[in-house]
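ok here's the first one, seq then struct tokens
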Amino acid sequence: MRVYCEPDAQTIDEINEAAKAMHISKADLILKAVDQFLHPIDQADPGIDQLRSELDQTSLELDQVRSENDQMKSELDQARSDANKRWSELNAMKSENNQMKKEIEGLRSKNDQILITNDQLRAERDQAKNDMVGVKKDLEKYQEALKLKDEHIHFLEATVHQALEKLPHALPPSQEEAKAKHWWQFWKSGG
């Protein structure tokens, strides 16, 4: 049997929306509506109100769980972002630490070179001190030798001076003096 009716535009729109929401055809929706009208659910099963209440409660809990899930996802994303930031900071610190280690090694190498140079300079200084002690001893010897030579020179000068004082009387007279005094013959004969 077929039954026909002419609903208004608003009712047709409501039927279309309800059918879409329930994912059924318009004919099935109208059949269910007639069935429910003829056999109301409240009279048929008294536990349906309790099921509806439980369904509503479960829907609220589901919404709450979804909200918590979204919040946890947001917190997880924030935690990942913080972890990535810390990871980047840690890598930057490791890189800086490695750079500092390289600089410290370079400074240690320079320090070792400076210590080696310092030891070489100390050795040269000690050698120079030893050489200076030897040079001072040599200088003292040379000064003593010069003093002795000076004394010897003074002695020789005194001896030469004494000899020169005595010598003019022993030297032959000059040629003019010999001619004037007629000594030239004496000196010629060698005698």
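and now the second one, same deal
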Amino acid sequence: MKKQWIALFLISFTLSACIGNNDSNKDSDKDNRVALPDINPNLSTASPEGIWMLHMDIDMNETAIGSFRQIEVDDSYFIRQLVTIKIIADTNKYEINSYCGASSDLNSNSAIITIQSDSMIPYEWEFSEDQLRSFSSPPDNFSRYWKMFYPELLWQSQEEGQLSFKQNLTITGNISHKILVNYEPSERYNSDPYVIIPLSGAHDIKYNKIMKISGVKISDSIHIDDAPELTYTLNIQSEDLSLSNTTSQLFCLKSNEKTSKITTTSSEKNSMETQSIQALNIGINSSPEEETLYFGVRKYLQADLTSLYLDQPKSNSYHSISTCPKQNLDENCQNPVKFDLTLDSKSKNSLSNKADIVGHDGEEIRANFSLLIQP
């Protein structure tokens, strides 16, 4: 059985690579997106080290088949993000640091990835002949977790990535990640009423993700505060917090647009759910407390719900304030007295957001952030 399943795994990988995506509407949307900043000819061409603006188009498809239903997930992302590419001393290896807080990554709708994001970039890469090749991936904690409790579970995963530079000023490439999972429970699990059914009841899952990446170098520096090509304003004021350019330093920025379609097919009924989310997240080093904070906004378009949040991992503090959804099923939800928020992630050389909020309890939050890339 295992040999047959592994053969199916290899066939599925080959087919998914050949079939591709024929969604013309999706391709049209990509053609209309904001352009990358112009190439800066004054930057160094000797090394890719520096700050880069990346644009990432991510398509994730997953089919989960269970005994009573089948769920098809089709997620698409467009991400604009500042990342640093830094050489590892005395090696031919580079780090791509794209982490901008757990809250910046929208959770996957996958049955097997669950709390992880579909937009993770491998951290370490080997450099050779103007190309980076991924040689490390985030630890596959999910497969180890499931196999610990369900040894019958078969899990096959393959991730590959290659990025190419042109004069160390532009970058293009792809990252692919494929996972096949098969689960056939033993009689012991079938007869034990206390055993939790894994993977939402699915016994065959195929996960396929393609990340298409393009980018330009915008500074030779590896710190935003030291980059003469970048200027930003930062001002966040509330009863418990006061942040500005003079007391805090910006170290990361990530803009995220996600559209999702989830189709469920069963003998009882068929359904389709669509979701659209826009998000902007920034990472801030605050002094003199020397605490890292992540500040961001999210807009759930179908639900007509917007939230603003502040995540402080060091003090284990997470604070958010939101509007109530259009179809409010929570009797305890109270809309803010005032919730004015603007988010601009579609300008070629800038990103910004502005918020003026008064909660239902009188709490006031005023925030203003903008980043400008000097061509």
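notes on #2: The chain has one domain: 2-17+27-373. Confidence is low (pLDDT under 50) at residues 1-22.
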